[in-house]
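Re: that chain you flagged

S.,

Sorry for the slow reply, it's been a week of failed gels. I finally had a moment to sit down with the sequence you sent. For the record, here it is as I used it:
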Amino acid sequence: MKVKPVVARELVHHDIDEIIAYYLGEFAEQAAYGFIGALEDAYAHIGRHPATGSPRYAHELNLPGLRFWPLTRYPHLVFYVERPNHIDVWRVFAFAFIAIADFFLSCSSVRLVQANTPHSRQIAACWPESICWCNCANRASRFGRR
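Prediction finished late last night. Pasting the structure tokens below so you have them in one place:
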């Protein structure tokens, strides 16, 4: 079996920096080191067995191939897409953030997204521009972007 290299996008580095800063801000240095170890383990697993990640959000976001893998002992998910020659890691999110995203993915949430709350702006900014959480043609105005 060929192990594919795992390549993280720039946003992933930002996600990881924020997570580590959170743990260090809580004076949890060991947790920060443990997070890094769990992330390295997840990358190794994804590189060896990319098809084992859950495709749960692939259909909801209309992103064929999108998968996620949970970190062991940490409340974070690694979102990625398998490419022919590598694994493309898109984001690393906490479970709590995913629960908020689930809420915004529901059909009844469009009015709440239009409210332009801090959470809706954060969710709108979390994926590449081509992805619309509410599957509308008017994404920019819904999220307060011009």
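What I noticed first: The first helix runs from residue 10 to 25.

Talk soon,
D.
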